[in-house]
Specification:
single chain; about 475 residues; mainly alpha; Fumarase C, Chain B, domain 1; Fumarase C, Chain A, domain 2; Ribonucleotide Reductase Protein R1, domain 1; 3 domains; two-stranded antiparallel ribbon; 19 helices; 6 strands; binds arginine
C-alpha cells in the first residue's frame, strides 16, 4: 500500500490549507479492510453510471468509457496489480481515482448525484446479500446431512438427559432432529433478514437525496434489489440490517456451540457414544494416546467472537444522531469477521456431520445404567389404576432397591418387582425395555423410531417445497 500525503490528492483538497496529519490519515482510513468490497463497489458504480446515462446526465459515450474503465480497474485488482493508497482513504476513492487516472475527466463524472454515504451502504448490502446466499447453501447442506444421519440412527437408543443426568431413553435420530429443528429456524431467520438487506439505498446521496433526475427504481432493478429505500436519511445511517444478520449469526453459533459441546462430551472416553473420523481431529505433541475433537471445540470457541461482534454493532449504532456518521466505518470488520466465521463453521460442520459414527452398544449400556425407564414403570402403574403420586413413590422405592443391588429395573424378577406393588404383572417387562419405552412415545414430536422417520420425511418435503 502506498502512502502519498498530499492535500491535492484528496477530493476535498480545495477546502483545505494543509495536508492531513500522517497519523490521522492512517487512523481514518478504511482501505486496509474495505478493499474486499471492490467487486460490489464496481458493480454499484456501473449500475449508477448506466442509470445516469438513461436519464441524460451522462452521454452514452461517457457511460461506455466509465463502464469499460471500471472493468479494467476490476481486472487489475483481481490480478493483484492494483496499488491501494492509504491517502485515498477507502475502496471507493481508490477505485474512482484509478478510473480517472485511466480515462481522464469523464471518470470525474461518475460521482454525480451520489455520495460515498449511499455508495458504502449499497456496497455492504450487495456484499451481504451474496454472502447470505452462500451461507444459506451451506446451512442446507448441513441440514441434509443431519437428516440422513437421523434416518440412519432412527432406531439407535441412547440416554436422554435433563440436568445432564440420565432421564429417559431416546432415539439418537430424535436427538439429532432436535439439532435439525434449531438449524431450520436459523435458516428462516437468515432468509427473513435477506428481505431487509435487499433494499437499495443508492440515490440517498449524502443524506437528503439529489437534485439530478435520477431513476432509483431502474438502478435497483439493475442491481437485483427488491426496491429503493423510502427515506434518504435512514438509508445512509442505519445498519440495522447488519445487526439483524449478527443476531442470526449469534444464534446460529450458539446452536452450533451447544452441538459442539455434546460432540466433545460424546467423544470422551467417559461417554464414548460416537467416533469422529481422524481427519476432523488432531493429536497431542506429548500424549501419544490423544485424539482431540478440535473442530467442535473451535466452533464452540468461535461463538464468542460472533457474539462480541453483534454487541459491537449494537453499540456502534446506539448513540448516533441522524444521518451518516464516520462511526459507521466501524461496521465492516465485525461484519466481515462474522461472515467468515459463520461460513467456516458451517463448512466444517456440513463436512463432518455425515461422518459421525455412533457407538450404539455404548449408548444402550448407558441408557440402561441410569434407570431411564422409571417413568415408564410409573405410567404402567397409573394405567393399572394407581394414582400418579403413589406410583412415583412406588417406583422411587424400586429404584432405591436397584441402586443398592446395582441392577436395572428390567433386570429384576417379577417376584422382586411385585413386592413394591401387587398390580405389577408379567406384562411390565414390555414397558421396562428400552425399545418398549421409546416405541411408546409415538406421537408427533415424540421419540419413537416411526416418528423420527416421519419427522425426517416432513423435513425433506419442507426443504424441497
Ligand atoms: N469509508 C467510509 C465508510 O466506511 C465511507 C463513507 C465515508 N463518508 C464520509 N462522508 N466520510 O463508512
Amino acid at each position: 500500500m502506498t502512502d502519498q500525503n498530499t492535500s491535492s490528492e484528496k477530493p476535498w483538497g480545495g477546502r483545505f490549507s494543509e495536508p492531513t496529519d500522517a497519523f490521522v490519515e492512517r487512523f481514518t482510513a478504511s482501505v486496509g479492510f474495505d478493499q474486499r468490497l471492490y467487486h460490489h463497489d464496481i458493480t454499484g458504480s456501473i449500475a449508477h453510471a448506466t442509470m445516469l446515462a438513461k436519464v441524460g446526465v451522462l452521454t452514452g459515450d461517457e457511460r461506455d468509457q466509465i463502464v469499460e474503465g471500471l472493468k479494467v480497474v476490476k481486472a487489475e485488482i483481481e490480478a493483484g496489480e492494483f496499488q491501494w493508497s492509504v491517502s485515498l482513504e477507502d475502496v471507493h476513492m481508490n477505485v474512482e481515482k484509478s478510473l480517472t487516472d485511466r480515462i481522464g475527466i469523464t471518470g470525474k463524472k461518475l460521482h454525480t448525484g451520489r455520495s460515498r454515504n449511499d455508495q458504502v451502504a449499497t456496497d455492504i448490502r450487495l456484499y451481504l446479500r451474496d454472502e447470505i446466499d452462500v451461507i444459506h447453501e451451506e446451512l442446507v447442506r448441513l441440514r441434509k446431512g443431519l437428516l440422513d444421519l437421523a434416518e440412519r440412527e432412527a432406531e439407535t437408543i441412547m440416554p436422554g438427559f435433563t440436568h445432564l443426568q440420565t432421564a429417559q431413553p431416546v432415539t439418537f435420530g430424535h436427538h439429532l432432529m432436535a439439532w435439525y429443528e434449531m438449524l431450520a429456524r436459523d435458516t428462516e431467520r437468515l432468509l427473513d433478514c435477506r428481505k431487509r438487506v435487499n433494499i437499495m439505498p443508492l440515490g440517498a446521496a449524502a443524506l437528503a437525496g439529489t437534485t439530478y433526475p435520477i431513476d432509483r427504481a431502474y438502478t435497483a432493478e439493475l442491481l437485483g434489489f427488491d426496491r429503493p429505500t423510502e427515506n434518504s436519511l435512514d438509508s445512509v445511517s442505519d445498519r440495522d440490517f447488519a445487526i439483524e444478520f449478527g443476531s442470526f449469526a449469534a444464534l446460529l453459533m450458539t446452536h452450533l456451540s451447544r452441538f459442539s459441546e455434546e460432540l466433545v462430551l460424546w467423544t470422551s472416553a467417559q461417554f464414548d457414544f460416537i467416533d469422529l473420523p481422524d481427519r476432523f481431529c488432531t493429536g497431542s505433541s506429548i500424549m501419544p494416546q490423544k485424539k482431540n475433537p478440535d473442530v467442535p471445540e473451535l466452533v464452540r470457541g468461535k461463538t464468542g467472537r460472533v457474539n462480541g461482534h453483534l454487541i459491537s454493532l449494537l453499540t456502534l449504532m446506539k448513540g448516533q444522531p441522524l444521518a451518516y456518521n464516520k462511526d459507521n466505518q466501524e461496521d465492516k470488520e465485525p461484519l466481515f469477521d462474522m461472515v467468515d466465521t459463520v461460513k467456516g463453521c458451517l463448512k466444517a460442520y456440513a463436512d463432518m456431520v455425515p461422518a459421525i459414527e455412533s457407538k450404539a452398544e455404548n449408548m444402550r449400556v448407558a441408557a440402561k445404567r441410569g434407570f431411564s425407564t422409571a417413568t415408564d414403570l410409573a405410567d404402567y402403574l397409573v394405567k393399572k389404576g394407581v394414582a400418579f403420586r403413589d406410583a412415583h413413590e412406588i417406583v422411587g422405592k424400586a429404584v432405591a432397591f436397584g441402586v443398592a443391588e446395582e441392577r436395572d429395573l428390567s433386570d429384576m424378577t417379577l417376584d422382586e418387582l411385585s413386592r413394591f406393588s401387587d398390580v405389577i404383572k408379567n406384562d411390565v417387562f414390555d414397558v421396562l425395555t428400552l425399545e418398549g419405552s421409546v416405541q411408546a412415545r409415538d406421537h408427533i414430536g415424540g421419540t419413537a423410531p416411526r416418528q423420527v422417520r416421519e419427522a425426517v420425511a416432513r423435513a425433506r418435503a419442507a426443504m424441497e417445497g
